[in-house]
């Protein structure tokens, strides 16, 4: 079976997560990046897309591929779509939408592939079959997850996805299109509720998005085959026993997301009393609103540079954290900030080494400071002492290209134009 994954705003981060969650070392060749939006994985196991998409933060849609056809063969594309529509399973009006990912041109017209006439012919055919139907449209060539969800296209209709890319053209010597159908979309309402609905939020100190927290957890704890040795235990079966630590827990986003993902042995610490109080409020809110529980939860009002004084040595499976990233507002002396953070992170990493299990992982955010420039921002990085750790490459070499790329030190940059402080996602292994 071949599945497609519509990637989030940071394709490199999205693919790093998918590789960590889904791919084994022997199956790296069964994955392809078709363009900046679409990742394809071929597997012999069926995926539960509806469950999977709740546990991964970097994917907008998951769907299954139905066929591969020449883009010039318009009639075959129409027939293939019609055959794939399970109209009989839907009571009432059947809704369908078409999303197009790619820039392949039609051989007949020389123009961009046009969705409208294709959709109108499908609509005409369905009405001839006495099927009440509606074509769900959008201003963009792709339907957003919001449009798909609000129109219930995955449960009471269908979103057909057409995918083309220069890779297909190069491999097969001509324009090709893959035809798929969306199985699940990112639960944007749930993510928004967990982000903005929680009682304790601290905009001044920065807020880690729940989606990024999910990605970081998966990079730390899902099978990671590109580096040896393989994980400490069977993660799916042993999630309740795995010990996760966030030593800069802030308002508890990483801890609450870990709870939702089934990890039940959690430790949070922070040198801010308010942060611990906020974390406690948010955890209690999560337990009440979403009915989730952890097997064991400990919170400490302590500094990350003294972890070994209150946490057992070699006991923690993974450390996942966004530490203090420096001042976000006002006039800043970047060199002084970098020196202070390098000292804090170096001393914290020395403590991480003491309490982390052999081969355990640290997934950490480091700040990257944007300098003004005429083109893309020039980022200034920090360099804490990594003694006892090595940076892990989260993406296999065959998947790296001009779109999917890491920094020179195998980390991933996360941010957007206009930000003064970007995030550098760093995966470390003891």
| Count of domains | 2
Q: Could you tell me how far the N terminus lies from the C terminus, measured between alpha carbons in angstroms?
A: 36 Å
Low-confidence blocks of residues: 104-111, 224-237
Kindly estimate the percentage of residues that lie in beta strands according to DSSP. 25-35%
Pattern of helices and strands:
EHEEHEHEHEHEHEHHEHEHEEHEEEEE
Q: Characterize the largest beta sheet: strand count, sense, and whether it forms a barrel.
A: 9 strands, mixed
Calculate the mean pLDDT score and round it.
86
User: Percent helix among the residues?
Assistant: 25-40%
Structural class: alpha/beta
CATH topology of the largest domain: Rossmann fold
- The CATH superfamily label of the largest domain reads Vaccinia Virus protein VP39
Write a concise synopsis of the structure shown:
With 430 residues, the protein is an alpha/beta fold. The protein has eleven helices and 17 strands. The strands form two sheets. Strands 9, 10, 11, 12, 13, 14, 15, 16 and 17 form a nine-stranded mixed sheet that branches. Strands 2-3-1-4-8-7-5-6 form an eight-stranded mixed sheet.
């Amino acid at each position: 079976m071949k599945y497609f994954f519509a990637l989030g705003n940071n394709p490199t981060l999205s693919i790093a997560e998918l590789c960590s969650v889904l791919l084994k070392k022997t199956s790296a060749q069964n994955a392809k990046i078709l363009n900046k939006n679409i990742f394809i994985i071929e597997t012999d196991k069926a995926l539960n897309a509806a469950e999977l998409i709740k546990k991964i933060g970097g994917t907008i849609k998951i769907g299954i591929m139905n066929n591969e056809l020449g883009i010039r063969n318009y009639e075959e594309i129409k027939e293939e779509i019609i055959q794939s529509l399970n109209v009989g399973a839907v009571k009432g009006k059947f809704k369908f939408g078409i999303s197009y990912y790619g820039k392949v041109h039609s051989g007949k017209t020389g123009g961009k592939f046009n969705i409208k006439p294709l959709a109108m012919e499908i609509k005409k055919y369905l009405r001839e079959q006495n099927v009440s139907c509606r074509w769900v449209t959008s201003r963009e060539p792709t339907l957003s997850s919001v449009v798909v969800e609000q129109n219930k296209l995955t449960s009471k209709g269908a979103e057909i996805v057409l995918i083309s890319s220069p890779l297909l053209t190069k491999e097969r010597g001509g324009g090709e299109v893959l035809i798929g159908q969306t199985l699940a979309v990112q639960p944007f309402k749930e993510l928004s509720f967990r982000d903005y609905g929680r009682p304790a939020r601290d905009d001044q100190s920065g807020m880690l998005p729940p989606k990024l927290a999910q990605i970081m957890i998966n990079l730390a704890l899902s099978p990671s085959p590109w580096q040896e040795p393989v994980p400490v235990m069977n993660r799916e079966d042993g999630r309740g026993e795995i010990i996760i630590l966030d030593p800069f827990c802030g308002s508890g986003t990483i801890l609450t997301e870990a709870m939702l993902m089934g990890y039940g042995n959690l430790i949070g610490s922070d040198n801010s009393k308010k942060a611990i109080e906020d974390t406690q409020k948010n955890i209690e809110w999560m337990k009440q609103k979403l009915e989730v529980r952890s097997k064991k939860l400990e919170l400490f009002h302590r500094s990350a540079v003294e972890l070994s004084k209150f946490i057992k040595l070699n006991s923690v499976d993974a450390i996942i954290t966004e530490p203090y990233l420096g001042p976000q507002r006002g006039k800043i002396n970047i060199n002084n900030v970098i020196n202070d953070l390098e000292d804090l992170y170096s001393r914290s990493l020395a403590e991480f080494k003491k309490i982390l299990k052999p081969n355990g992982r640290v997934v950490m955010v480091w700040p990257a400071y944007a300098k003004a420039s005429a083109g893309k921002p020039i980022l200034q990085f920090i360099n804490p002492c990594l003694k006892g750790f090595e940076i892990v490459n989260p993406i296999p070499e065959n998947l790296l290209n001009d779109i999917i790329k890491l920094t020179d030190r195998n980390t991933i940059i996360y941010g957007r134009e206009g930000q003064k402080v970007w995030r550098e996602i760093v995966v470390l292994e003891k």
